[in-house]
Write the structure tokens for this entry.
Amino acid sequence: MTRPPAQDRDPGLQPERTRLAWRRTTLSSTVAAVLAAKASLHNGVQAEGIIICALCCALWLAFLTVAHRRIRTLAAGNIPPPLAPRHATTAVLCTAALAVCAAVLVY
Amino acid sequence: MIDFARNVRLWFEPQHISEEGATPDYRFSLANERTFLAWLRTALALIGGGFAVDQFLPHLRWAWRAGLALALLAAGVLCALRAVNHWVRCERAMRRGEDLPVSRFPALLSIAVAVVALAMVVVVLAGWAG
């Protein structure tokens, strides 16, 4: 008794692979955000460190939101629409802003 | 450079992409998206490396530490911006049925990472010797 395959299911599992790729990317961004939080609170709790830590958390949340929306679209089951450039740009800008926070911390 | 400016506009205005050419097979778009995500992870790893150099090599002279960390962070930013730019270019090429764009960025990034790694080896060895 094997279940008949769902209609139009891609045998290469492309939506699933793309969903997992987003998952890996959120994990990477989590690691970067944790390192950022550790670095920002390294010299004791100071106003500057707290501001940068909060900023990094906000960037991480923004990234997570974009990724979560895309993951839900990909998991919906039908043929997924292509990624919107606005979302790709948001993800990239979050990453770049995290690097700017890091550069501020290095100084 | 003019091409780059036009691409930057496309990052924010998706409707301009979908006006051109024909929609490709969705699987090609998804493959392009995964490549984009892989580059984004590379960028995040470089940025994480920048944090790590700053945090976990506290005995280095400040100039070396800051220099290495900033080099890694700058590479991460470049990698992220290039990721979205390359994604847009591939998406547009697929819609128009053109060849995919080629790029010397992977080679440049490899050389930059190799140089940073060598610099870290030299710095750590010099730290032990001195």
